[in-house]
Amino acid sequence: MTDTDHSVPENRFPSHSQPHAELHSAEQFEAWRKSMLAAPAPAPVLTEVGRVTEVGDGVAIVTGLARALADELLIFECGIQGIVLDLEPGRLGVILLGPSELITLGEDVRRTRKVVSVPIGPAFLGRVVDAMGRPRDGLGAIAAVAETPIEAEAPGILSRSAIFRPLATGLKAIDAAVPVGLGQRELIIGDRQTGKTSIAIDTMLNQSRSDVVCIYCAIGQRGDAVSRVIAALKKGDMLARSIVMSAGDEETPGLAYIAPYSAMAMAEYFSDQGRDVLVIFDDLTHHARSYRELSLLLRRPPGREAFPGDIFYVHARLLERAGQFTQEAGGGSITALPVVETQAENLSAYIPTNLISITDGQIYLSPRLVRRNQFPAVDLGLSVSRVGGKAQSRTLREVAGNLRVTLSQFEELEDFARFGTRLDDTTRARLTRGAAVRTALRQAERDPMPPAEQLAVLIAAMEGLFDALPEEQLSGAMDRIRAAARKHFQFIDERINENKGLSKEDRERIITTARTALSANRSDEVSHGPDA
Predict the structure, then answer these.
(1) Would you call 368 a catalytic residue per the annotation?
(2) How far apart are the first and last CA of the chain?
């Protein structure tokens, strides 16, 4: 039997100071233990997890989320987001905000307990974003000041005031005969390739003379079309005061569906600060088709033209958020110019009639005028502005008051003259005057005109200064009158700012100056010859 080793290992006992340190540590531990026992227990976290049972082109069917709410944002395991559109017993119909190819059957889906929101802030000016507010121009992240839900209740009647300020488009045919006011909802309607987007872009470019913030929302447009819009805004120095939101035709229909609501949410941020905002939805025909596609995939009952029954409400709750607001509500305004496409001039189709009844007027672009090379092809007989005339400047209203009547009488005589009827001199003079006035309404793209130049050209046309000129010379004659207006007609801007009409002396001064400009050019042509 061996002896037990009673040797003491090195450092077996602590030094004289170590027991105090251990005692102090034990007291701290005991105090910490008592504080933890006294603290309230953390609340249990309830996590609801669903499963994907079906996946379609832009939609998914989810089960297991019995407490999910309508319009709630869901997160799929692959990172794709979705919006609850249909609530049915035991299943949810979800709109996907990303490619459906990334979603697999059986993967987890979690609730977020919030609705779809979009980032907002002044840093978005000058940027190109998608429907979720994410940058698409390669210029880096955007510093947002907050996030706001894309859906919002339209302001009530007590938060609105009368429309009293004009929104100048820079186009003679619109500013004179179909004026638009700040806070108005004016529909741009017409067949394909009639110049609807061109009118919207020219209106944005004309805001370089004002402080209006512009938002262009492209819905279902091709990438090259959006690129041309961005290039035009850059060339016109308006991109820095504009936001371009694009939900292209190559993207999921869910993004095309939420795009106009996201654009309106961004517009409301600026209007709440007292600023004037112009929002262009190009176009709501593609928006309605995207919603119809989603609804049919989710097996909603189809109605007229296969659209679901709530398609009117889809557009009404969007456009009713525009308006002129009171000082208590921010004092700003949101002017909406929705674009809608017709087929074969059918204004009685489902979506066009819906939007005509929602908006405050329409600018109708006729393909018949396009075939006559009349641009912009605004049909003044079918175009109307229900509230913009009250905001129109008195200066322009007095000059353009007879414009619609003159053109309508001319078109009736023109149709009558096609039968080969012998016409007297008075009728021939009316035809000549009407043709000159209609030609004077022509305007090149990306060339918006200030009010003084518009007035000078319209007065010259109404007074017959263009009657003796061939059609091919009218463009040059209008350019000379515009140049004279820029040089001599500063008093017109004063009348417009004071909202006063032109006096008899003012009109005579404009007519005399216009005649001088035209006669000077004729004398130059005679002295230098036609080939000079």
Answers:
(1) no
(2) 134
Query: Which of 389, 333, 322 is closest to 361 using CA atoms?
Result: 389
Does residue 165 contact residue 332 with C-beta atoms inside 8 Å?
A: no
Look-up of token digits 């190559």: 250
Joined tokens for residue 406: 């003159």
Please give the structure tokens belonging to residue 5.
Answer: 């080793």
Give this prediction's pTM. 0.88
Q: What is the pLDDT along the chain (532 residues), one digit of tens a residue?
A: 444 444 444 444 344 444 444 445 788 888 888 888 888 877 887 778 999 999 999 999 999 999 999 999 999 999 999 999 999 999 999 999 999 999 999 999 999 999 999 999 999 999 999 999 999 999 999 999 999 999 999 999 999 999 999 999 999 999 999 999 999 999 999 999 999 999 999 999 999 999 999 999 999 999 999 999 999 999 999 999 999 999 988 899 999 999 999 999 999 999 999 999 999 999 999 999 999 999 999 999 999 999 999 999 999 999 999 999 999 999 999 999 999 999 999 999 999 999 999 999 999 999 999 999 999 999 998 999 999 888 998 988 888 878 888 888 888 888 877 776 677 888 888 888 899 999 999 999 999 999 999 999 999 999 999 998 988 889 999 999 999 999 988 888 888 888 888 889 999 999 999 999 988 765 555 444 444 3
Helix axes 451-462, 490-498, angle to 10 degrees: 100
Q: Which of 33, 134, 209, 386 is catalytic?
A: 386
DSSP 3-state of 73: strand
Distances in Å between the Cα of 439 and the Cα atoms of 320, 405, 472, 475, 497 are 36, 16, 10, 9, 28
DSSP β-bridge partners for residue 460: none
Q: What is the CA radius of gyration of the chain?
A: 33
Q: Which residues of 171-185 are buried (b: 16+ CB within 10 A; e: fewer)?
A: bbbbbbbbbbbbbbb
